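Lab notebook page, bench 4
Experiment: in silico fold of construct C2
Operator: M.H.
Input chain length: 319 residues
Purpose: comparison with the prior construct
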Amino acid sequence: MAESYLITGGAGFIGSNIARSLTDGADRVRVLDNLSTGRESNLNGIDNDIEFIRGDIRDMDVVRRAVKGMDYVYHQAALPSVPRSIEDPVSSTESNIVGTLNVLLASRDAGVRRVIYAGSSSAYGETPELPKREDMLPDPLSPYALTKLTGEYYCRIFSRLYGLETVTLRYFNVFGPRQDPASQYAAVIPKFIRCLLDGDRPTIYGDGEQTRDFTYVENVVEGNRLAARAEKTGGEIINLATSDRISLNRLVDLLVEITGRSITPIHAEARRGDVKHSLADITRAGDLLGYEPLVDLREGLRRTVEWMRAGDVSRRGTE
């Protein structure tokens, strides 16, 4: 039986990868995106038709129209970036808290079966214990982290008070194809790859010994699809990661091996709000979702480099 899915932020990096995974059958897929950070071109080449609504999750009328008739909502839309939120906490609050509340209210009223919310590992903050477990006390260090944590609490409240099924997936440093390396707020991996392919020196903020649990996007897509089918969904919060960490210095070494470009990075002053170490315990994801990582870090980096190189060749062919 065909089912219907709304992906908020579906023209963005993770959202567009989820959209691609849902169009291999008879399912109906609708995307809501204001294109502030997403691109319609991220949806190019998908065989099945996707209904696209250009609009903002801060506009309740638009959100109500988007959720109408949907079975599931993948709520990916957010204003990303820790540095951006430090510069402009008001916009982050409006998009990530008010926007999420709008999505939950509209989903409740439209009879949506389940909302799968894109949470963030930034909620853990600088808690020293590793790996990070979902039962740890959150300690957000930035407005962005606080807004994403607030969204989690709203999801849990809507499950308890209104019976709306919700699942929060806390993402750990997701990377892969369709992630924009050009933005000043771009994630570290696409930025590093772009620098290496262009022959530029990547910048590491701090000493480079900070560690991250980088997670290839295919793993996150798989986790989202499993979350739509999981039995226990009473506001559950679940880490989604690889459960393996690497320092930024070692990350550059790996990318040098993969790209064949020998370049020494530049070290700059550490940034405010950045967490020193991050590593996920994914036991709960395995127990509740049947999740296990499909793609490890090295293979994910290789695929991402290959995708970015292919994009370079394609652009040169049109010049």
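Observations: The first helix runs from residue 13 to 22. The chain has ten helices and 13 strands.
Next step: discuss at group meeting.
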